[in-house]
Specification:
By secondary structure, this protein is of the alpha+beta class. Helices cover 30% and strands 25% of the residues. The protein has two domains: 174 residues, 60s Ribosomal Protein L30, Chain: A (2-Layer Sandwich), CATH 3.30.1330; 164 residues, Alpha-Beta Complex (Phosphoribosyl-aminoimidazole Synthetase, Chain A, domain 2), CATH 3.90.650.10.
Length: 371
């Protein structure tokens, strides 16, 4: 590749976007006469999506060619992908289209942040029944675009196809800015454990929604619909010398177990230091639940957990949560904690969880050929 380093991303719908197809007026999807994607057609839907997507500096070439071209000044690309299936990862009777879009973007962008990188672009594949209202699909894209903007990224393209079930496939790309990626295998005995972001709020919100009690705490319910990953904290942790880092998507204990296994250490969580527990305690009293189950085993908050060398001065937004020791596994208050530590996609959830976090597959860091 000559000139500046760039990532060329295959974009299956680019040929359609190049066509001269105008986006017709769409009608609100709450009305009986709402236009469906089958009525609008594939080309019309893609044209409508194209018109509403903003551009970002990292997107060098967008719609109109066989592929998008995305800036990669570092020469390496961080890549991650997730799948979401209606009824398993989201419910349209609980979440508006924009909520689903925000969540779909957030869970991928958080993975990029967990590598110590900055997100640059998102690719989205949508498989949908033909009776989906067009405005729902466009609101989904608006949610995706809004969350990308919060992280400094752009929606670069994707694909649309028909299916019996509504499904989303999302791929996020990021740039390391010249730094080494922060991986799961660098934690060492003597390190401290810290977390940025919320823990247990999404699981508590899910429990309230399941019990038809979301009105009791709209903030927790919204935390389930629209997680708020601390994207800036990933690069911040990398600059501080984080020895390992992970996105908390499946549950704190389970995800820290991946770090402990990769690093060959034991991680001890101090539950007295768990942040933001007041709303969890109130919801647990209402539902007769244990708030620590949500904080320790609930997923989908997409907080970042990282280990740092002893003596690291943590900035605002990071909470000291425990320590790394010699040994194996994850301890809570220096003891093993019984029960599930989070979600497992093929064994199911802990009893207090009923909707799965997104299936995750991290592709890691891909080196590009030299310029």
């Amino acid at each position: 590749m000559s000139g500046s380093n760039a990532t060329v991303v295959t974009w299956f719908m680019a040929q359609v976007l190049a066509a001269d197809v105008s986006a017709p007026r769409v009608i609100g999807y709450h009305r009986e006469d709402a236009i469906t994607v089958a009525e609008l057609g594939e080309f019309g839907l893609i044209a409508a999506i194209r018109e509403l997507l903003p551009r970002e500096p990292a997107l060098l070439l967008g719609a109109g060619d066989d592929a998008a071209v995305i800036s990669a000044p570092d020469g390496r690309v961080v890549a991650t992908t997730d799948l979401l299936v209606e009824g398993r990862h989201f419910r349209r009777d609980w979440s508006a289209a924009r909520d689903v879009g925000v969540k779909a973007a957030a869970q991928n962008l958080a993975d990029v942040a967990a590598m110590g990188a900055t997100a640059t672009a998102l690719l989205i594949g949508i498989a949908t029944p033909g009776d989906l209202p067009v405005e729902w699909a466009l609101d989904l894209m608006r949610g995706l675009a809004a969350e990308c903007a919060r992280a400094g990224a752009a929606v670069a393209g994707g694909d649309v196809t028909g299916a019996d079930t509504l499904m989303l496939g999302v791929t996020a790309l990021g740039d390391l800015g010249g730094a080494a990626p922060v991986t799961r295998d660098g934690a060492r005995p003597g390190d401290i454990l810290a977390v940025a972001g919320r823990l247990g709020w999404s699981a508590a919100g899910l429990a309230l929604l399941t019990a038809d009690a979301a009105a009791a705490d709209p903030e927790l319910a919204q935390a389930h619909r629209r997680p708020q990953p601390p994207y800036h904290a990933g690069r911040q942790a990398a600059r501080l010398g984080a020895t390992s880092m992970i996105d908390i998507s499946d549950g704190l204990i389970q995800d820290l177990g991946h770090v402990a296994a990769a690093s060959g250490v034991s991680i001890d969580i101090d539950p007295a230091r768990l942040p933001g527990t007041a709303p969890l305690r109130a919801a647990a009293r209402r539902l007769g639940a244990d708030w620590q189950d949500w904080a320790l085993a609930g997923g989908e908050d997409h907080a970042l957990a990282a280990t740092f060398p002893a003596g690291t001065q943590l900035p605002a937004g990071w909470t000291l949560l425990g320590a790394v020791r010699a040994g194996s596994g994850v301890l809570v208050d220096s003891r093993p904690r019984g029960g599930p530590g989070g979600w497992n996609h093929f064994r199911g959830a802990p009893p207090e969880l009923s909707v799965a976090p997104p299936a995750k597959s991290r592709f890691g860091v891909a080196d590009l050929p030299p310029a």
